[in-house]
Write a structure and sequence with these properties.
about 525 residues; mainly beta; five-stranded mixed beta sheet; about 40% strand
Length: about 525
């Protein structure tokens, strides 16, 4: 009869056989080191136990004949390590902080003594990467929570923790441009990718992953456990991009319940007057929400062998008006009477306008005559009867009066441009399941729903601006299984589906992936 571990192995092999490969990456961290005695000789067969402080998850390995030990597929967070061996004092090190996708090294020197005696160390692991030549930088959860984020841009939008990547070394954003224009270590804009919970955020219809992180999949700081940017010398699993890799992991529940609530508000009375506008644009903005996470101690989900944790985050954004309004160009009062003598170039020269009624073909070329007024001698003037007898009058009756004189930049728009985010709810749910010491499954659901919105800069009767809306669903299902210290498996299935009012309507991307590989690590002492 097959044991549970064998059934799991067969299930993984079935996934390998029947699930096509896609663009996903294993973003689990690694902890490794060498165990030696006081003389520096390696100690084989030592029992090494790694405990996740936040969840209580326990992993155990035995040091190799070379005294080496290693743990892989680790979640970012706090850990404690304990090493035991006959004839030596137990060694315990607390305060280890492992970052997202980090290669951490903790070497252990055991002291001779009774097993009942214990050496306890409170110290973090070295911040240096001894394992690879990777160049990267990241931000811990404490930093994400402490740094402020602007509520919205002029066009409206949720806060996004992805904006923090511009603070890292080697990241440059041209003045006045957004995150999608960012360059990483001199690479081309748009060349990077964003990975959410082990899978790429890039879709074939919405641009690069960095674009998605900046605009489509806004990441509330409250939902982010950690973020990292890998800017050079990264592993082959990230080889599908020519730029940097932005990695983000969502927050998960822990052994204790944690939650928060927030409300940010912007008001017209608190804003400065926009330059070249007599009155402050109406701008009312609300960004509110909260999160909660903890253990799911209910039957079938919680036992001595199985542990389940949940995390839920909600954020809602509402905006009326906008921080600024655009300055548009509409026909001047003079031009509405047919007199276009104010239509001049930068040097003050008259720009001719031509009469379509005089169109003719001359030597195969289309030619028209310039409007010359009723007397035939006044350039750029249309006879009043041509204006009165045209459909222009039906359009003019809705056209507002200019805000300023002149033919260009003469009208303050009625409202801010329409955007997807002015009425948006954002939900994130994550469930983690630990089955014994060898299996970790977690599921993430990201849902962003924006209500249909129409905001016109000219009266609606003559405006060509249409209704905008977007609903985006992003899911991640990941499974990490440890067969042995040198045989690991990571499998993931990402799914994203944006539905919007633009060209991305009803488009979907499904990219399942399975990694099954024998990883043999030779670690230098």
């Amino acid at each position: 009869m097959l044991r549970t571990g064998n059934w799991i192995g067969l299930a993984v092999l079935a996934l390998v056989a029947f699930v096509p490969a896609g663009s996903a990456q294993n973003i689990g961290a690694q902890l490794a080191g060498t165990i030696t005695d006081p003389s520096g000789a390696v100690i084989p067969g030592a029992e090494v136990t790694l405990t996740a402080v936040d969840t209580g998850a326990v992993m155990k390995v035995t040091s190799s004949p070379d005294g080496l030990y290693s743990f892989f597929n680790l979640q970012a967070g706090r850990y404690e390590i304990q090493v035991s061996n006959k004839g030596f004092r137990d060694y315990v090190q607390r305060g280890i902080r492992i970052a997202l996708n980090e290669k951490t090294r903790v070497d252990v020197k055991l002291e001779v003594g009774a097993e009942s005696q214990q050496i306890e160390v409170t110290e973090n692991a070295s911040a240096l990467n001894f394992e690879t030549a990777e160049r990267s930088g990241g931000m811990a959860p404490e930093t994400l929570n402490e740094l402020p984020l602007i509520i919205t841009t002029n066009s409206g939008g949720l806060r996004s923790a992805a904006s923090f990547m511009t603070l890292l070394p080697g990241v440059i954003t041209p003045p006045g441009q957004g995150l999608d224009a960012t360059h990483f270590n001199g690479a081309q804009r748009g060349a990077g990718d964003a990975i959410y919970n082990g899978a790429s955020a890039a879709t074939g219809n919405s641009g690069s992953g960095i674009f998605q992180a900046a605009y489509d999949y806004a990441q509330s700081p409250e939902m982010v456990n950690e973020l990292k940017v890998i800017s050079g010398n990264y592993e082959p699993q990230y080889g599908s991009t020519a730029g940097a890799i932005f990695i983000m992991e969502t927050r998960s529940g822990t052994n204790e319940f944690h939650g928060n609530g927030f409300w940010f508000h912007r008001n017209t009375a608190l804003n400065a007057r926009q330059w070249n506008v007599d009155e402050k644009p109406r701008d009312l903005e609300h960004d509110a929400g909260g999160s909660i996470g903890g253990p799911a101690k209910v039957p079938l989900l919680w036992s001595s062998k199985n542990k389940t944790y949940f995390f839920f985050n909600f954020e809602a954004f509402r905006q009326t008006g906008g921080a600024t309004r655009n300055i548009l160009s509409i026909p001047s009062l003079q031009e509405r009477q047919g007199d276009f003598r104010d239509w001049k170039d930068a040097d003050g020269n008259l720009i001719p306008i031509y009469d379509p009624a005089t169109t003719q073909i001359v030597n195969g070329q289309v030619e028209r005559k310039q409007f010359m007024g009723c007397d035939g001698n006044t350039p750029n003037v249309i006879c009043p009867d041509r204006i009165q007898n045209s459909l222009a009058q039906a359009w003019f009756k809705y056209l507002p009066q200019p805000s300023y004189p002149g033919p260009l930049n003469n009208f303050v728009a009625l409202d801010a441009p329409a955007s997807y985010s002015v009425h948006t709810n954002h939900y994130t749910t994550r469930v983690d399941e630990y089955m014994g010491n060898n299996d970790h499954l977690f599921y993430t659901l990201y849902l962003r729903k924006s209500a249909p919105t129409t905001k016109t800069e000219l009266p609606v009767e003559i405006s060509n601006q249409s209704q905008t809306y977007i609903t985006e669903t992003v899911t991640r299902l990941n499974w990490d299984h440890t067969f042995s210290p040198v045989l690991l498996n990571h499998s993931g299935c990402p799914l994203c589906r944006p539905v919007s009012s633009d060209s991305r309507s009803f488009s979907a991307c499904l990219s399942p992936v399975v990694e099954f590989q024998r990883r043999i690590f030779v670690l230098q002492s």
